[in-house]
Structures are given as C-alpha cells and as structure tokens.
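In response to the reviewer comment on reproducibility (Comment 2.3), we provide here a single inverse folding case reported in full, input and output, so that an independent group could reproduce the run without further information from us. The structure tokens appear first.
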C-alpha cells in the first residue's frame, strides 16, 4: 500500500507554488540535507525548509520549525539555524493556506504560530 505523508503534500504544494510563480526550484537528490528545496531568484540560491500542518486548531496553525530524529533508542529535537535554512515554506492542508517565513539571523525558534483569528481573550 502506498502512502503519502503530510510532509510530501507540503513539498508538492511548495513546488507547485514556486513553479506557478516562475521561480526555478531544485530538490536535493539525497534526503539528509537540512533543507527540502532550493529556489533560484535573480541568480541567488535560497535553501527552503517546508513545514506542513494538517489543520487549524483554536484559530491558529502551529508549525514545528525543528527536526525530530530517532536514533539509538531515543528521540532528539534539533533547532535549525540561518546557516542551514534561508526560509520556510509553510502550508496548511485543511485551508490550503501557504506563506513564507524568513527567519532572523541565528538559531531559529522551534515552533511558529500563525493566527487566523483573534485570540478569545482579545
């Protein structure tokens, strides 16, 4: 049985969005890079990490902007840095919402929240 992961769906959406906007996009041949795609804008290359969420919860989308790996019997979580990733392509399966997040210099926070509704406490 073939299955498609939520991450695969996000990457396909990113590829389509970049191609629709006539941005050249490349994908690493190996799956061990800290980024998912490379885009070429005005002859400058940018490393893109794609992050996808399934749905909106409580009026917001929460993207895990970190990596999680399982090795030697335990899980580890690692933050990205701007030495590894230039921007994030964010995609929500439920709404079709997508956007780009350009992090500030240094280590990147491990999660990013996008609000679609005002908080209930105002």
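Designed residues, in position order:
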């Amino acid at each position: 049985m073939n299955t498609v992961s939520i991450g695969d769906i996000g990457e396909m959406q990113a590829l389509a969005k970049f191609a629709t906007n006539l941005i050249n996009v490349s994908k690493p041949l190996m799956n061990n890079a800290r980024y998912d795609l490379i885009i070429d804008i005005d002859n400058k290359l940018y490393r893109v990490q794609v992050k996808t969420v399934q749905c909106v919860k409580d009026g917001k989308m929460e993207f895990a902007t970190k990596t999680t790996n399982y090795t030697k019997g335990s899980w580890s979580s690692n933050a990205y840095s701007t030495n590894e990733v230039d921007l994030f392509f964010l995609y929500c399966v439920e709404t079709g919402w997508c956007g780009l997040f350009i992090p500030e210099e240094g280590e990147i926070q491990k999660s990013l929240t996008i609000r679609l509704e005002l908080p209930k406490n105002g």
